[in-house]
Amino acid sequence: MAASSARIKKSDLGNAEWVLLLSRCIDSIGSEDYTAHLVEMLESVVPFDYSVSFAYHQNERPLCLYHSFSPVEQIVFVDEYLKGPYLLDPFFKACGHKVDAGLYRLRDVAPDRFYQSEYYRSYYIQTGLAEEIAYTMYLQDGVAVVISLMRGGDSSRFSAREFRLLDNVVPIVNSLSQRHWCNLHDSFEIKPPEPENGFNRSIIEDMVSAMFGPRITPREIQVVAQILEGHSSESIARSLGIAVGTVRIHRRNVYAKLQISSQQELFSIFSQKFKTAGK
Fold first, then answer.
1. What is the reported pLDDT for 11?
2. Residues 71-81, mean pLDDT to the nearest whole number
3. What are the φ/ψ torsions at residue 202 (nearest 5 degrees)?
4. 53 in any annotated domain
5. Domain check: are 183 and 235 in the same one?
6. 8 Å CB contact between 267 and 122
7. 150 φ, ψ (degrees, to nearest 5)
């Protein structure tokens, strides 16, 4: 990995080198080389260490469309991620909420206690990343694609100027990717939308309900889902329109019903149950 002091922006938008890389990207639409050329074009503007692209559709297991990791790094960034941690990924959650297409820093879409969450401590910290930013976009039939650009722990975070440069090409990334992945919905099991039933549960709430349903109440399911995502008691209270004290009571009741005493144990149960269900 390049140290932060050694980072040099390789080209400017619109110069001959960048136009050549862009043309290669355009020519590769529909081929297996497209994402690699897209990443090469982006890296010519602002350097980064890794890139990975995932496609999401509702509660189906994501598809890894591209990554630049070594075989060892792939285990954490891709293989382990697809076993269940993706459900607690802020970018996955943001796509579920239909955040506007664009470029985001992880901290822009993460819950207020994400960096104290058990997901972060038990999984995300293993990546050793200094920062992750990502392009989000939406394709046909509700399929979302997230293209992450990452800097390792020995590198600096993306500066405001670097972020602006990458943000300037959002329309290009979106337009090219829409054309390249125009048939990506065929890779998922697309079902007709279900009729409105008065409920608007998140995917993580559905998973919590399936795992713990008979033992905890619908309100406790909502609280557990947001605890796992990394929300504080204050954030959960605002989201559900209840008092902070009530959130804490729900948390204590859940821990008692599940016979656990910490968020770490809750995360462990959730992770194990998901992995078992996915086998």
1. 60
2. 96
3. -80, 165
4. yes
5. no
6. yes
7. -130, 145
Render 35-68 in DSSP notation, one character per residue: HHHHHHHHHHHS--SEEEEEEE-TTSPPEEEEE-
Angle between helices 160-168 and 170-180 (to 10 degrees): 50
Residues 247/227, Cβ–Cβ less than 8 Å: no
Q: Is residue 170 part of a domain?
A: yes
Amino acid 105: pLDDT: 98
Please write the tens of the pLDDT for every residue from 146-165. 999 999 988 999 999 999 99
Q: Are residues 259 and 211 in the same domain?
A: yes
Residue with tokens 């509700």: 142
CB of 23 closer than 8 Å to CB of 42: no
d(CA 125, CA 226): 20
What are the pLDDT digits (tens) for 181-219?
A: 999 999 998 665 554 443 456 778 888 888 887 899 999
Name the domain boundary from 136, 161, 187.
187
